[in-house]
From TrEMBL:
High-level lineage: Bacteria, Pseudomonadati, Bacteroidota, Chitinophagia, Chitinophagales
Keyword Acetylation belongs to the record: no
Pfam family, one: YjeF_N
Transmembrane segments: none
Name recorded for this polypeptide: Bifunctional NAD(P)H-hydrate repair enzyme
Amino acid sequence: MVVLTADQVRAWDRFTIQHEPISSINLMERAAKCCTEWLCTNLPSSQSSYYIFCGKGNNGADGLAIARMLYEVDRQVDVFILEFGSSGTAEFQQNLQRLHPLPVGIHYIQTGSGFPIVPPGVIIIDALLGTGTTRPVEGEMRALIELINASPNPTISIDMPSGLFADQSTIPFSSVRAAFTLTFQCLKPAQLLAENAAAIGDLQVMDIGLLPRYLNQVQPEYELTGKTLSQSIIRPRNNFSHKGEFGHALLLAGSFGKMGAAVLAARACLRCGPGLLSCFVPEKGISIMQMAVPEAMVVRSTNSDHEKTNANDEHLGGDLPPLHQYQTIGCGPGIGTNPATVQLFKELIANFRKPMVLDADALNILSQNQDLFPSLPPFSILTPHPKEFERLAGKSANETERINKARELAKKHQLIFVLKGHHSLIAMPGGSAYFNMSGNASMAKGGSGDVLTGMLTGLLCRGYTPEQAALLGVHLHGLAGEFASADLGMESVLAGDISDHIAKAFIYLTS
Ligand SMILES: NC(=O)C1=CN([C@@H]2O[C@H](COP(=O)(O)OP(=O)(O)OC[C@H]3O[C@@H](n4cnc5c(N)ncnc54)[C@H](OP(=O)(O)O)[C@@H]3O)[C@@H](O)[C@H]2O)[C@@H](O)CC1
Ligand SMILES: [K+]
């Protein structure tokens, strides 16, 4: 699966029309057939009446072709065409001519007063605007979209919910809110944004047979993680290897009351194959870590005596252990932002020059000390959730702006940003960006991020490059969540369960 912009999809249509070859109208027939078959297969046959709302571009032309095909399989169909001045595309006109001889109601709507009332049980097909949306909807188009949204009837959008830009955020403007969106051939960037989830509903990708070889000549703006990519990254463990070959990781994590974050990160790290793991935790957390994660070693904080107070027992501070022995370091889960911890973080940045993983309070410390950005070791992986990213990079009006900021920061400082979310976005120092396609809502719980930090640390330590670790780690993390929810249900998965299912995710990718 690929994700392409509206322009790229248009070019793919043209490429297929030229090289298959196939006429534009016949390609549209293929698209409409896919949609009709989906509707007939997936909607109960008792729901057999349709109101199809059409614009006058090719999305509307799809709607007209679907109307004809639904009529041919004995569905009751009424078509409503929103007049907005133009005569419509050639395909629109052709499909209208094909519809005219059939006993399908064709209604032209021009003003709010002419809008129909949709009877109960009738399915709404939204074919007003597709990938050709160029501006926020207003006037009659907006009023019609509001009418569709106000109706309790299920709405199925063709290609895009009308009003939604295909390539970028649309908020604060309005769009159709669909129960299902039947999109053609590939994903469009806007379909991966969490803020559009309510508009898109359940997204279904229809294979309309566009020629795959077009993809050899296109540079997607976004790429997707997935099984094939992860399989190309995973390296087997050599039979003759010993623990020394898989590196030694250091985790800086935990404070009083937040040792759980440290434990979760440590366990997840160990599940990703490092040879050794040491955890640098506050004095009061040592026995917790030793008991909860016997496979990890603990490094004692060496606070000098004059600094040592009870408070210093409760959070990280003092002197760092010698850092040269570690392949990588993960820093942040549960560490808090105590001044001693801030000082420790500054020393860490000044003294460790290999890529590391920064999350949670390490990111909050960074937000308050933005001058540290240029000093971060290149290719370090930063894993902010939306609020942490806002603290780092300021408020964003919408998700596209947030993603663009992450991509710019990644390039400017040669860092990898993982913007955590439903489809986490991975922004690479070289400019490329990936949406992650694994995971589900069972993971939307405290501690999931600590697990990811541990996993990324483990993979970096194990010898994967930072880009490989980010791509594999984020995908594996989502897969582990999927396996956990398959075993335990969506509500009951705990962050530790994600960790406990990393093994299944590895086995799935390697078998
Ligand atoms: N063979 C093919 O080509 C295939 C094409 N396919 C289908 O084509 C769709 C793309 O078609 P498209 O490019 O004609 O664009 P579409 O989304 O119908 O809208 C364009 C019209 O809307 C108008 N308009 C724009 N914004 C507006 C606004 N805010 N408010 C009001 N009006 C607005 C714009 O007018 P204008 O900007 O000129 O004023 C123009 O009239 C694609 O999504 C897929 O469904 C598939 O069947 C596969 C094969
Ligand atoms: K549409």
